[in-house]
Amino acid sequence: MKHRIVVLGAGYAGANTAGRLAKRLHRDDIEITLVNGDPEFVERVRMHQLASGQDLRLRPLSDLYAGTGVQVRTARVTAVDVEGKTVDLGGETLAYDTLVYALGSAIADHGVPGVAEHACNVAGKQAALRLRARLGEAKPGETVLIVGGGLTSIEAATEIAEAHPDLEVAIAARDRVGGWLSDKAQRHLRGALDRLGITVHDHTDITAVEADGVVTDAGSRIRAQVTVWTAGFTVHPIAAASALEVSDGGRIVVDAGMRSVSHPDVYAVGDAALAEGADGKPLRMSCASANPMAWLAADVIAARLTGRKVPETTIGYSLQCISLGRRDGIIQRVTPGDQVTSTVYTGRTAARIKELICASAAWSVSHPTMLMPSRRRHLAVTAAAETRPLARS
């Protein structure tokens, strides 16, 4: 009987894991099933572009994995039974021997009332398309308020302002917009925000979202016809509802090889996993974390199943990339532990680097078996041996 590997989620993490496993393991010995709610691979790092009115290339998963041996299932995951080793797909049950959990994240409202009812977001394709439609209906002079001061917030604000110069764009952040960046990067960011006419509300905590704006912690109101909520992400509750060990935030706790610390036949990658980075702190939710987590998990799974040495790698960072519209950007060099350095690239050069990185990430997913030579090895261990209890340190 073939060893059944089920990958849940086809974002950057899940899609890369499935493709890399297909290159590592022999088809005679395994079945790889990739489950995703959308029939296409969605470039989540470009959702601000989609929302602003740009069209993105369609990448059907069935085309991407044709001939690779990966079976694509378009379905919604409703539950995971890690004791029975099954996944519920809305009434249908899918069994596995090894599970890769990569269901990603969704918008976090942090308990702020009115977010779900009145705010748009760019956390996914459908959400970005709804915001796109709303922006298309907006009248000249109306205000679009972006709530949040991080990477997603900055990119959404600048992209919308550039694409819709007839609208008034503002951004409100609890701390300082882009405040973690180096001094040089912050100066360039402020210059870009000024150039695009974006009003900045620093140190402004939003306590409620209403149909015509937001309420701040100071009791004042910021009027806006369109509010875009980009104040963080949270994981889906499916993992927390299972017997998997999860963090307070619901992320699956994994070891250095992306393997669940409580269930050795389960691996987690991407936003859904709580994994330590180079400085011992959790890796942040990002494409920059998702891809190396996927590569490592696939290599660890393949090594265990084929009886080879399990790789040992510490995932670290090198850059933070921010687009400021289509012709401007910031490339902030960081330490492996994600601390900013004084090295920064800005302007068109940074925009080109950011575009190259985004295009490369999409290319790696679109060509799942082309990045490295295929070494499809036969299984050397049984499923039972692969999933024996972990040694806890």
Proportion of helical residues: 25-40%
CATH class of the largest domain: Alpha Beta
Secondary structural class: alpha/beta
What profile does the largest beta sheet have? 5 strands, parallel
Number of strand elements: 23
For the record, the CATH architecture of the largest domain stands as 3-Layer(bba) Sandwich
What is the averaged pLDDT score? 93
Physical arrangement of strands within the biggest beta sheet = 3-2-1-7-19
**From the structure provided, what is the oligomeric state, counting identical versus distinct chains?**
single chain
Strand content: 15-25%
Q: Can you identify the CATH superfamily of the largest domain?
A: FAD/NAD(P)-binding domain
The overall number of domains is 2
CATH topology of the largest domain: FAD/NAD(P)-binding domain
- Residue stretches low in confidence (pLDDT < 50, at least 5 long) are 387-393
Distance between the termini: 34 Å
- The helix count comes to 10
Q: What's the alpha carbon Rg, rounded to whole Å?
A: 22 Å
Structure report:
The chain is of the alpha/beta class and 393 residues long. It folds into 2 domains: 3-106 and 233-308 and 377-386, FAD/NAD(P)-binding domain; 113-229, 3-Layer(bba) Sandwich (FAD/NAD(P)-binding domain). The protein is 28% helix and 24% strand. Helix 7 links the parallel strand 11 and strand 12. Helix 1 packs across helix 9 (347-366). It is globular, with a radius of gyration of 22 Å. The two termini are 34 Å apart. Residues 387-393 have low confidence and may be disordered. Keywords: FAD, Flavoprotein, Oxidoreductase. It holds the Pfam family Pyr_redox_2. Its cofactor is FAD.
